[in-house]
Amino acid sequence: MAQYLIVSDVDGTLAYDSTTISTRTSQVINQLLDAGHLFYLATGRMYALAAAMADQIGPRAEIISANGAAYEFSGQKTHHLLGAKALAAIEAAAAGNGLTAVYFTDMAVYYVTTPPPAIEQMLYSFAPKDVTIDVRQLPDITALQTHSDEITNGIIFSLSDPEALANTREQLAAQALLHLSASDPTNIELIPKHVDKANAILELQAKTGIPKDRTIAFGDGLNDLGMLKAAGISVAMGNAVPEVKAVAKYVTETNKEDGLAQFLLRFFDKEES
């Protein structure tokens, strides 16, 4: 059988909850890895947290982290960075609207403005107990920019002020210094310009020689739309937002029902018959 590139979002898709991939899903993925196919997790999470999820599948599961700004191929990592100019624009827009921007490297989390307690708690909610993340407040934008050679992406949360979030997004979009997305109505995903999960898939298709028509992508949120369009076989989860279901060729069961595993079993059983 020809080799397939299989790519899955993590939260709400591959994972049963924020820290767990089901045994059944892991077993199905490993069966396909045994058959010679490639599997990538594609997530907005920083690399360290993506790696904690990949470990539940095993060492052959590869990683696309930071919404496509970092990915693995043949033992090497490729990084795209937000850059010093974008960091300054983000910080000014967020702080000007009373919001906190949070920035990620592969292993660390930075912020300048102190976040509300609920958001600070969210920064730790995705980390397993055995994973240590360096979460650090920096004194100002100048200190933040000293890390511009390692910051891949960021996020702005607003749990109670959608107007402030909308204003921040509008201001950043007008400057065209970075790519904006969202995994939820309460956030803005901050990604390097011209980069998203789709960009990583296109680069991997070129490097692996696996074409679009043998690329399978799974997603549930708005930041998965580009990735689904880059795949010839696009699959929305049963719990996906309507916009994702509208662009996907297939809809499978929810993440709580092992929808990814169920689709892959049906698809490859048909391919082999």
From TrEMBL:
Alphabetic keyword roster: Hydrolase
EC number: 3.-.-.-, 3.1.3.-
Protein's recorded name: HAD family hydrolase
Domain of life of the native organism: Bacteria
Matches recorded under Pfam families: Hydrolase_3 (PF08282)
Principal EC category: hydrolase
One GO MF term attached to the UniProt entry: hydrolase activity
SUPFAM superfamilies cross-referenced by the UniProt entry: HAD-like
